Each structure stands twice: as C-alpha cells, then as structure tokens.
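QUALITY CONTROL LOG
STEP: pairwise intake check
CHECKER ROLE: data steward
CRITERIA: each record must contain a sequence immediately followed by its structure tokens, with no blank fields

ENTRY 1 OF 2
RESULT FIELD BELOW
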Amino acid sequence: MHLPCKETNMTTKCIAFSNNDVILIAWTFVEKLPGCVGFDIRRIAADKANTSSHELQGDSLPAMAGFTSDPDGAQGGQTTAQSPIQKFFWKDLFVKGLTPGQTFVYQIVPMGGTFAPGARPNLTPLPGVNPIFSQPIGLNANHGPAEAPASLACYFNRGILATQALSRELPSGRNGTPASGTLLKRIANPNDSLRKALAGDLVNVLPSLLVEAKAKGGRCYGALYELSDPQLEASLVGNKQLHLILSNTFDSKTGDIDTENAPAREALHQSGVDIIDRMFPDGNHIGHNKFMLLTDANNGPLAVLTGSTNWTPTGLCAQTNNSMIVRSSSVANQYLEYWTALKKDTVEAQGDPHALQSKALRTANQQPHSVDVPGARKGTAWFSPNTAQKSKAKSVTPVDMADVYARIEKANSAVLFLAYDPGQPSIIDAAASAQVANPKLFIRGALTNAVRAGNFVIDLHDNHTTPDDPAQVIPATGVNDAFGTWEKELLSAGHAVIHDKIVVIDPFDPESCTVIVGSHNLGNKASFTNDENLLIIEGNVSLASAYAVHVLDVYDHYRWRYLLAQHGTKDTWQGLQDNDAWQDKYFPAAGKPGNPELAFWLQAANTLPAHLPASRRPKAKA
C-alpha cells in the first residue's frame, strides 16, 4: 500500500514503492534547499524507526558517484553519507539480500558541507532542515486482495548484465569486455552465487506450480518455447503430473530446427513425460508461449504462471524478465482451453510443420476472454495466432493488438513499456499516437532493438524540448569504454537484453490503471505468426505500481548508458557538484517544466490502492 510519509509542510513529502526485487523512494521539499549538496538515504528497520526524531537512524545506502573536487576523483564506492544522492528519487538495489519479509522506513537527510582544495569533502546534515521519512515498506510480490494477497503475484529478475558489479565479477575477455563464456558457464550452474543473484526469485517461481501439483495430486499443463536450463529441466523430467507442449527454436546459421531444445526433449520422452512436440519448419512462425497451468486432483483449473521468461539460463539470468502467477479458476480455464486447442492443432497437422496454426485455431483465437483476476476490477485474456491468414500484412491490425493500441491511445497520464523487438506496427506506434493526442503524457520505454527505439527518441539528452515533457524510448546499451574507475560492461550473452513484454498504463489511477503481460512481443507480427498469450489486468494499483517500478528501474539503468554512448563522458559523466545548483531542474523558474520522473512518482502520494477491499479503504471525509 502506498501512503504519503510524515510531512513537514504541505508539499514536503516522501513515498516508497516496491516489487519483489527493489524499493524505490521519491521525495520533495517545499522549495530549493540552499547549501544542500545531496541527500543521505538511510534504511531503518521499521520496528526501530522513530519518525518524530531528527537524529540519524539506520544505515546509509551504498553510493557510486563521488564529487569532482574529491582528491580521490569522482569515483564513489562509498555510502550516501560521503557521496550523497543529487536526485529526488533513488532505488535501494541492496535490500534484496536482507531478511525476507522485513519492512523498512527510509530517512532522507539533506546534506551540506565544506570543500577545501586537496581534501575530501566534509559533509554534515544540513542545519535547520529536518530529515523526512517514507512509510514502512518491504519487498513484496503479492498484489491480490487482502484476504488472499498471494492469489496474484509478480516476480522480476536481476538480468541486467551491463553493470559495474558484473564487470568486476568476471574476468576480461575480448577487447577488455567481461568474458561472456565464463558468464554462460556460471549461470548454468545451479549452485553458482552469480546465477542466484541474477535469477532472483524466478528460478524457484517457474517450477513452483509443478511442485504444488506433485504435493497435492494435481496436474500441470505447460507450453514452452525454449527449454535448456538443467535445473528447470530436472523439474520436468519424469514428472507424471506434467502434460507439456514443447516447441522448437530455429538456427538461421545452420538451418537446424531444434538445436537448443533437443537434449531436454529427448530426456523428457525417455522419462515417460506426456510431451507433445510442436515443431515449426523455420523461424517465421514460432511456438512462443511460456506458461504453466495447475489443475486440482479432479482436473479443475486452479492457477496459471505466465510472463516473458524462457526456461533457459539466459532467460533466468542474462535478460530482464518477469513472471506472474494468477490463482484464478477463470484465468486457468481459458489457458487450459487454449492448451487443448494447441494440442489438437498439433495432432491434426500429422507431423507436417507447414500445417500448424490452422484456420480453426486462428478463428478460435479471435475472441477476447473476460476473466476474473484476484484484486483487479477486470481481466482480459487473448491468444494467438488470431489472424485469418499467416501473412504479415501491415494493413490489417490483429484483434488483440487493436485492443492494446486502443488502451494505450486512451491513456490519461502515463504509458510505460519494455520489449525485446515488437516489430512494426507495434506498441511504439500506438505510444507515438497517444503522445500526439496528449502532449503531457508521460511515456517511457526501453527496447533491445535500437532501430525501433531510435525511431521514437525525442531529444533525449535535453529532456525538456517543449513546455510539456517529451516521450522517451531508448535502446539498451552498456559502458563501451573504460573511464575513471568505470570498467567496460557486457551488454548481452545472447540475442536479447531486455526480454520483458510489458505495458503499464496510468499506474496510479484506480480506474484506468492497466498492466499488459504475457509472452506476446507486443506488435502485429506476433499475432500473425506466433503462438502467444496476453493477459490484460485493469484496476489494481498495487500490481501496476510494482510493474512501473520494474519498467523505470530498467529504463533508468540504460538511459544513462545510452547518453554516455551518444555524448561521451564530457557531456554525461560529471560527478557530483559541490554546490546546490544540481537542484535547479527540480525547482524550475515559473512557467518552466519540472522533473517529469519526480512528478510521475509523487502523483501517487494520495492514490487509493484499488486492490484493497472496501473494509480496508480509508473512509471518505464528509
């Protein structure tokens, strides 16, 4: 639940957001703070926090950037007490390793200081300005109703490779870039600490419904595109509760249609698993699903796991990905009907790969399915392929994407997204249309495909080309050249860098907030050519906020690196300023736009979480 923190005046506020992986804090003061050179951000165990005290509490968060006047250089590597944060929002990336279930309060301490030539800065809390505090918050995957919060859960990994931490963890390979071969070996080892850190919760979440089926005597029905992770494969091999449709990948260099999945496929067949091989002839059509559904002992549908994560070491660890578990018989029943239709389509093709994705399957997928999603006002499931023909005609908009585009174009305040390569037309075109219709719309997105992103970048470097905030869509990139204490980074260990397929619309609006997830690549091509699933969830602020944190976490990480690649260290890498001028963009002159990211987060301060039942909602004032 997101509530405003203790406020020292009408506009000073602080608010924290979280998902299962990261906590984000945003704050503001009534006006610019003279002499403030940044903020010390301190994490306090919630049961020990005293929000009425002005004393320093808890522990300062780690920091990277240092002051340019520091004799040791602008290298950071300390904490926010020595290298304060010169922003009004920040992420706690280190909370993940702490005690599960623990809650925290964040103390925001304005810092002042003196700077003498040849000496390290002497920083102290800014006199006359009291610290402010966030509300208690912890990492949280559950976003269902109060009586059953785990009935709707979402999970994100740490699959960003372009980090300084990873660069220092791996030996150097070609051209000084971290060795990708070493990375691939380590992330395939279930016991490796690097694999565990990058995969996060996903390594346990993906097989969780299989574990549940075995414990309770139920069954699982899955449809997978890629399967090559040894640990995940072990959860499938010999599993008598499992009914699996396993598709294939295509190697364009060798023409091989099953290089990646062949070992796991053979092991599954030999172990007696009920497996249906759904084999496409080339890469033009793919069985792109990654879902698993659970039924009870009587084969009654119970729950579905869906999302963007392929069951591979790179899917777990070397790409940004998400997975969601929805405990709803309504949702599970639609996925079971789709699974059954995929099986029927495969059997009736009689081994002819060109006969797959028949007219009957395509016709059946042309209708939306209204589903009950726990804690949400409304849910809609779409499946593909769902066009009358297999061509990729741009003149025809598939029914599922027409629904998605319409929602984006009706956005009131924000459109956020992550995608691999949605093709064209796609959500990017819809976002551009929405921006034209509503110039004040806050649009942020990041893609693996640089060309798609390049078509949409609107003067990213300035960030304020018009009185209204321009939309920004960026490609993923890393640090390509070492500078200062920064080392070269590894951008990818495969084709994808960002592999999420996410759209978030108006995340803080109880009525219009929408989350769009699944395996779908979010463009017309996928609906024409792929087996895909898409789940649209409306009216759950808690869920939408969690996805917004993930999207902007990924976006913010790659945005700075994109600027660095475009403009170099001269315009991008400046270290911390030893004065208060850095605040000016947050407190602009009258008539000038403020910082759009900060405004985006702070608009949630008084939002009522739509997922809370009426009994837990604050009563309206008379």
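ENTRY 2 OF 2
RESULT FIELD BELOW
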Amino acid sequence: MPTKERLYLFDTTLRDGAQTNGVDFTVADKLRVLSLLDRLGVDYVEAGYPGANPTDTQLFAEKHEAKARLTAFGMTKRPGRSASNDPGVAALLAAHSDAICFVAKSSAYQVRVALETTKEENLASIRESVEAAIAAGREALVDCEHFFDGFKEDRDFALACARTAYEAGARWVVLCDTNGGTLPHEVEAIVAEVVKVVPGTNVGIHAHNDTEQAVANSLAAVRAGARQIQGTLNGLGERCGNANLCSLIPTLLLKKDYAARFDIGVGEEALGELVHVSRTLDEMLNRAPDRHAPYVGESAFATKAGIHASAILKDPATYEHIAPEKVGNRRRVMVSDQAGRSNVLSELERLGVPVDKKDPRISRLLEEVKEREALGYSYEAADASFALLARRMLGSVPDYFAVERFKVNVERRYNAQGELVTVAEAIVKVKVDDETMISAAEGNGPVNALDVALRKDLGKYQPFISGLHLTDYRVRVLNGGTEAVTRVLIESADETGDRWTTVGVSPNIIDASFEALLDSITWKLLKEGAPA
C-alpha cells in the first residue's frame, strides 16, 4: 500500500475568524477553542496578533501547552527600517509561540499604493523578517496577501515574493485569495505555476469565501500541489468568511479521492466530535448554529418528503453521501404536511415512542399533524412538540402541573439613576398536585420574564428543570393584517448538552411563546422521568 502524503491543517479561527462581525474572544475563550482544536488534531493554530490588542498580547505573554503549533500573526518589517528595529517584528519575536506567520504583500499594485514602497524593498522585508524568525528559533510562515490578483497583474513579481520567502527559509508559503474573488479553475492553474518555483510541500492555500468558493478553492489548490490548508471552524471570518474546516476535514477524510492519498492528522474518533466542536463554538459566541451547514448542520441529513423517507429507511446511502454518525451528526426524518407514514414511524422510533407499525392511530396522528400545520404549526423543526403530540395520541403524557393564569406587564420608566428603561414583569400561578405557587420575575422582554417566572418554582419538579435554559427564539408572522397568526419556535438545552425545539401558534405572540415554553418544560420532565 503506497504511503500517504501529509496534508497540514492551519486553523485561524482565533485570528482571522475573530474578524467576524459580532465575534469577540476573551483569553479564556481562546484557550478553550485551542483545546477543541487540539482534540480535533489540527497542525497549526494561529491564535492572534500580539501587540495589536490587549487580548492577544496577554495570550502570547505566557507559554501554553498544546499539541498544535501555536502561531503568532503579524506584519513583515516596515519598509525603510531593519527587522531588528521594527516594533511589530519585536512583538512577534517576544511572543511565546512555536511559529510566526508574517503577512506580506505579493501584489505589485498593493506594494505601490498601500505600502508606498518599491518591489525590491518589499522583497527585502519578506526575506529579513523570515530570517529574523528563524534566527530566533521559530518556524516561519509567509501569508502572501492578494497573491492571486497579484499573479494576474504581475506574474513575475508574485512568484518572486513566494520564492523569496521560501529561499529565506519559510516553512510555508501561503497563497491568499484575499478578496475571495478567484474561482477554482484559476486557483488550480496558478498554484500549478507556483509549485514550479516553490515545492508543493511548502505551499499553503488561504481562501476567503466571497463567491462561496473557499472550500472548492482549497481543494483545487491541493489538487495542484499545495500541502497546507488554512481555514476556520464554521467558516468564520470577515465579510463572507474563510474556508470552512468543518466541511474540509470530513471531505478530506471521507471522500476516496482525498482519503486514499492524504493523511491530515485527524483520526476517526476526533472526526466523530466534529458536530460537538462546531456547536460548542457557536454556543460560546452566542450564535445560532447554521442548520443547513454541510456535514454538521441540523438539516445536513434531514428529509421530510415521504417517498424520500421510505428510500432512506431502506437504504440510507440513497440520499446521504456519508453516514451522519461519522461526523457526530444524526439522520432526521422530519414530520410535516408533506410526510408519510415512514416519516412518522422513523421519528417515533428515534424519539423512543413505542408504537406498533400497524396501529391505526398512526394514520390519525399523521392527519392531526397535517391539520395543525395548516393552522400554522411546524413540526419538522419542533421535535419535542411532535413527540408530546404523538405521546398524547398514542399513549399518555402526565399532567405534571397546571398553569391557572399568567400576567405580563411591560413598562417604560425612569430608574433610580434617571435613565429611561423598559422593564418586563411576569406573574405565573401554577398548581402542582394540591399545592399552588405564584411566581413573579423581571426580564429583558416579556417572553424572558415569563420563562423566568414559570421556571422559578415548580414545587417538587424544580430539581428536574434546574439545568434547563433557552438557547434560541424565533418568531414568524404567518399572515398579515389584523388577524395575523404568529408561530414561535423555542430551542432549549440542558446540563447534558441535549437540545430540543418546541412550537407555539397563536394570534398573540405572548400566548404562542408561552405554549412553546410549556412544551419545553414538559419535555424536559418527561425526558428526566419525573414522577407524575
């Protein structure tokens, strides 16, 4: 059996990914993500830009144990001064890192307009910066910014930048599609030219996703000879993001054209944690996971058409390009108004609802789903609400508690500091057995106040819901006018990491939200086996 070629993964979630609008990592966040990346088995982690901001400066002030090569990012020396007299280079050399990635212009236009210097001085900056890093005992990488546009403009100069970095001793010469506008066939052709002057075992690709081509461009570069891929978890990054490692890793491991040829250092066990890693990052950033993301999205292996569901149950490979379990995902055969018996039976089996396939109530349940979806309910995205509906029709769901009434008040007023604030207050009266509890709470909105009040005191059931919390809230107005119907989907999670979604429908958004909240708590109690 031929020896596989080594393909290296360079993760820049903590540096390039941190440029995503709304993303802000603390030092603790960065160390946690570093741990996740170590579990995956990436080779390099670019953790930040020391000297550029207090967080990154603090991170690199201490040495951190990691399997991956911790990499500091920064500029090559400025034109007109030596590397030893450049504060940016000094900050990189002082950082506790295994490697340094210098960003360097490789476009003649950028050198002339942005740096306002000469081609010769730019090449000297690349050469002297790399030599300074190597002299300090660091592995050097050069990220050739604007490389593909620069190559199209001035082929010889772009190649000179790459060659200079390599000849100075750079371990990796990384070709960056900075504006994300290059297409796969162009990437493959240009990288093929680069590897004629720099060995492919020293060439990397850094693709941005502005034309939705970053993953394709990365694979095109590998086909042409590049042996390092730079990307981020969940495709984070400025503008439209970077090449998504959550798509690239399983493609390289599971698609035979790549799996038979390359070793990427990520094992089968680590691949099985990919969904967990992806969603952990989203939770840290308080972002809702992309449900339609390849491989790791909730809908990546989902179908709701009855004829497709039947085929999937007989032969999963019919509509699934890989087994979802390989990346830690699962198959979802959704229940909706387009569903057939196969969808219902498959979902009941997954949810652990015992049922006889010949039970005539299955057909009635399917009809009930279709009738309710005509009213505005959506069970394809609300698995817990569907499970409760099914259990009520096919068996029973305990009446754990009864809500006798609730009240919500929203008031805009001046607080003690004279600031104008809006405060939501909720009161909920609940009966558990023969005991009545009245709870009040404030929240940053009426739904939040209701949620806090409802979960504040459920008597004997309080221990069962202590780890329950809401993770996502989505509202859709189904028709306009004075008789508008509102659908609310609430995603909940608990201390075990389990997630589930419930639905509520009403002309009143508060009423719809409360219905979804009730289902969420009831599902949690049922899941925990709480006594009736």
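INTAKE CHECK: passed for both entries
DESCRIPTIVE NOTE, ENTRY 2: The radius of gyration is 28 Å.
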